[in-house]
UniProtKB/TrEMBL annotation:
Homodimer. Adenylyltransferase that mediates the addition of adenosine 5'-monophosphate (AMP) to specific residues of target proteins. PROSITE patterns: FIDO. This is Protein adenylyltransferase.
């Protein structure tokens, strides 16, 4: 398609009464239709197959739900870091375990909210399809009690926002989304597209929907995080994945500038194909990594089960129960272990001492009382790419 032919394919910039130009997107799907030939078709096939392998690998895990929590946390940390938070996976786990370290980043509550919003949304999908209503509910969960909470959580914006370097003015913005009076209509159009039964490969549809949501930018804050959650919800709603184990934010964070450039190329040049190629490569890349993580989890669990059987003698039964719990809650206190196995405090303390002796856990607080023990080998499987970077949006 020629550059001239692309013009206006994704939408157009319109002058507003106060002088600035805002972008008004066209409804999906694009016209002319997406060209699925060549490289795009190749990566669509690759991404489909990689997601299928990932879903299968998760089903082979014993008690898959035990492991989902860490995938959700990983996505929460990375997605929040894209927006400028400093909190790491370890910070999130410490916050969940009520460890109030003096050097803990103040923004960890935003990551905690992301975890809660994802869990809330996945639960709501049992009764409510991906829709404007669900998006608004998720946004309300995400922004509750954190920076941006004064910016009408759950409510589409009633003022103009813009995207650009920190501190830039509307006139200096890299991109100006639609004016507020257009937001409700555009979200309605997006919902109609999501529910449209017209034949379109599902991964293409999800890629289009994410880009369109980011272009509408319907809230005053939290749009990036909600847009990334939208990908997960659509994959789970359509049962491409039975569990939310795809942290696509890892790929977006690694290739942040390309991510922004591809979205802007859609708006400026109508180049949907460039964006979709980037998106499908990301799905493939992250699916491969998550499948390998699932394999490493299985190997770790088997190795540690054998160690418990060999070393703990009569306590091995309780040891196995504790090990399974550590996959859901990788930081535990002795009191929590006591409640888990229904024994005395000295017996629970002895079990944790045995776990520490054989390197299964390590004490992380350095205290005599209220000690916490961490299952570091498991956490380390998820630690790649969780250092923070400066945000540009």
């Amino acid at each position: 398609m020629s550059e001239t032919g692309r013009a206006g394919r994704a939408g157009r910039y319109l002058q507003q009464p106060t002088g600035y130009r805002a972008f008004i997107p066209e409804p999906l799907p694009p016209e002319p239709p997406i060209n699925l030939a060549g490289e795009l078709q190749h990566w669509l096939s690759q991404a489909d197959r990689a997601l299928g392998r990932l879903d299968g690998s998760i089903q082979t895990l014993p008690h898959p739900d035990l492991f989902v929590a860490m995938y959700v946390r990983k996505e929460a940390v990375l997605s929040s870091q894209i927006e400028g938070t400093q909190s790491s996976l370890q910070d999130l786990l410490a916050a969940e375990a009520s460890i109030f370290a003096p050097d803990r980043p103040k923004d960890v509550d935003e990551v905690v909210n992301y975890v809660r919003a994802m869990k809330y949304g996945l639960h709501r999908l049992e009764d409510l399809p991906v829709s404007v209503r669900l998006i608004r509910e998720i946004h309300a969960e995400l922004m509750q009690g954190v920076r941006g909470q004064h910016l009408t959580p759950g409510e589409p914006r009633t003022s103009q926002n813009w995207i650009g370097p920190g501190g830039c003015t509307l006139a200096e913005a890299t991109f100006v989304p639609p004016p507020p009076h257009e937001v409700a209509r555009l979200l309605g159009d997006l919902e109609l597209f999501l529910h449209d039964e017209a034949p379109l490969p599902l991964l293409i549809k999800i890629g289009l929907a994410h880009a369109q949501f980011e272009t509408i930018h319907p809230f005053l804050d939290g749009n990036g995080r909600v847009g990334r959650l939208l990908i997960t919800f659509l994959l789970c709603e359509k049962e491409v994945l039975l569990k939310p184990v795809l942290y696509l934010s890892h790929y977006f964070k690694q290739h942040r500038q390309e991510y922004y450039d591809c979205l802007q190329a859609v708006r400026d040049e109508g180049d949907w194909e460039r964006w979709l190629l980037f998106f499908l490569r990301g799905l493939y890349d992250v699916s491969q990594q998550a499948t390998e993580t699932a394999r490493q989890i299985l190997l770790l669990r088997e190795r540690h089960r054998e160690l418990i059987t060999d070393k703990l003698g009569r306590a091995a039964g309780n040891g196995h129960r504790l090990l399974e719990q550590l996959y859901t809650t990788p930081i535990l206190s002795v009191t929590e272990v006591q409640d888990l196995i229904g024994t005395t405090y000295p017996a629970a303390n002895n079990l944790m001492r045995q776990f520490a002796k054989y390197g299964l856990v390590r004490e992380m607080t350095g205290q005599r009382r209220h000690r916490r023990f961490v299952y570091q080998d498991y956490i380390s499987l998820f630690h790649d790419g969780t250092t923070s970077e400066d945000s540009s949006g």
